[in-house]
Amino acid sequence: MMLRKFFLKRLKKYTLILFLPLFAVMLATLFFFSRNQINYIKVESKSSADRLETNIDQLFSDVIYQQSIITGNPSIILSLRKMLTDMTMDYSNYSMFNTMTGLIRSVNMANPYIISIYYYQDGCSRIYSSEDGIEEISTFPDSTFTNYLGRANSGKNYVTTRKYITDSFSKEKEILTFYMSMPTMKGTAVINISMDNLISRMNSLRANPYESLFALNDNGEILFYSSDNVRLSKEDLSIITNKAANNKNLSKEWIKLGAKNYWISTYYGSTTDILYVSLISSDVILASMRTTLFGFLIIFVAAFVAVFIISYRVTNDSFSHIQKIIDTFSDAEKGIYPGEIDQKINDEYDIILMNILKLFLNSTLLKSNLERQQFEKQVVELAALQLQINPHFLSNTLQTLDFESRKLSGGKPTQLNRIITDLSDILRYSLRPSNTLVPLKEELNALKKYIDIQQYRFGDALVFYTEIDDAALNFYVPRLILQPIVENSISHGILPSNRTGFIKLKALSNGERLTISVTDTGVGMNRNELLKLRKQINSSNNNNIGLSNVNRRLILTYGPESALHIISKEKYGCSISFSAFQSLSSNAFNKVFLSTEEENNKRDI
């Protein structure tokens, strides 16, 4: 639950940190992109209106130019007027008629937008058709063209849409009709243009699918328009026509049609009096933004996946780190301490946690060591109290045995009395405080009594001799420092050899330094045994109270340089040596131990 809680919290935090800048970048990008798109709409809308005007006006300009060539020929005009008013034609009129027919048909063939061309003279009941020749208006299938003849006068042209039919068997279709005034013959040229071709051309001029193009005549009527994706209601078309009718030079602006906004641009064609309108929906902005939005969506999804993975990894690593610290604390409280803390440092928080962890471990370790030392001290104190009881009892018992032995021998001292006396002196010597320093001379006297007892036990099998500098006798050494070394030589060197063994004690003084060595001719040790012994005497957990005890006492008294130095060779014997320093046997230091010794002597008395 905690992992999930912190994961969600970190996920939220990282998401905000990453997504807020991304969201700001997206908004800024969309803002500038929309501004560019709006400018693009304005430019394209104007360009579309211009292109539409250019193309359609060019079409009508070509038609007007071609008709001006035909109607500008007096012979053709006279022949056409005669044909429309009188059915009789002479050879010259007939020849001119064929020439005019060829010219008109060439116009039709050159311009795919033109369906047919009519020529009408005011007041006549006949017309000339580029397809059928001279026809009576009363029987002509396409009779609706006459509804707009009156609007093309005074040299002004007129454009409109109407229903067109070629014969009684054909269906009506909507076309664009251009009425062109012909003042020279007091009539009108009627040019019928294909609406489908115009709309197809208009579609090709659109800048994008969201654009609608319109063509309005001088009366504000929609002639033709192109609109695929833009759906406009009648009310919307009415708004556009009203704006066009009221202002031919309509300014470029945004207008609202229904629920959408449109940018409207117009261009007025003076040749045809047609107003061209471009209408682009604001949906083009959203449509053009879809790719950008999709790209940002991919970026957001990828960023969220990355944030999700990073949040999980960081949270999981943090909890693993915390759990490791908790386990380390728990183990430390149980007395289990890691050798080295293997933890990667990634940031300043790791440094702080590592320092806290090390501080805790060091504090716990020190506390544990202190408790262990206090326990060991208590054990030692109890053992010392026990030893103080037993030696006193033994010393008193030995004195009793000495008295009884003298009674049995008639008051004469025997070897047994000497042994009892030596043993009693050794016990009394050992009862002094363990921290007492004594002159080497006194330590040698106690050692001699121990050797006497051992030589009585083993006879000629043990030969002990010394080499002592006179200056060395005044050095102060720890009490009972030599007896364990000599005892080790006897027990582990001389006795196992089953032959007479020699032990030499040598004490040499060199100013402030005293060097003591004990050398025997016992069985010795091989290399592995020697290494094992050296390791044992330097171990704090060794239960051996002999050489290990001596080694620790020397180090505590004189420092590491006074530690036991052991050399040995198998079958040749062993030598154990150590050094003591005069600087540690100063008067002040001696007073402490001498005062302790005097108190012990008083206690014995």
Automatic annotation (TrEMBL):
Gene3D superfamilies: Histidine kinase-like ATPase, C-terminal domain. The chain crosses the membrane at residues 293-314. GO terms for molecular function: ATP binding; phosphorelay sensor kinase activity. InterPro entries: Bact_2-comp_sensor_kinase, HATPase_C_sf, HATPase_dom, Sig_transdc_His_kin_internal. It is found in: Cell membrane. Keywords: ATP-binding, Cell membrane, Kinase, Membrane, Nucleotide-binding, Phosphoprotein, Transferase, Transmembrane, Transmembrane helix, Two-component regulatory system. It is a multi-pass membrane protein. The keyword Phosphoprotein applies. GO terms for cellular component: plasma membrane. Residues 381-462 form the Signal transduction histidine kinase internal region domain. The keyword Cell membrane applies. Residues 479-578 form the Histidine kinase/HSP90-like ATPase domain. This is Histidine kinase-, DNA gyrase B-, and HSP90-like ATPase. It comes from Butyrivibrio proteoclasticus.
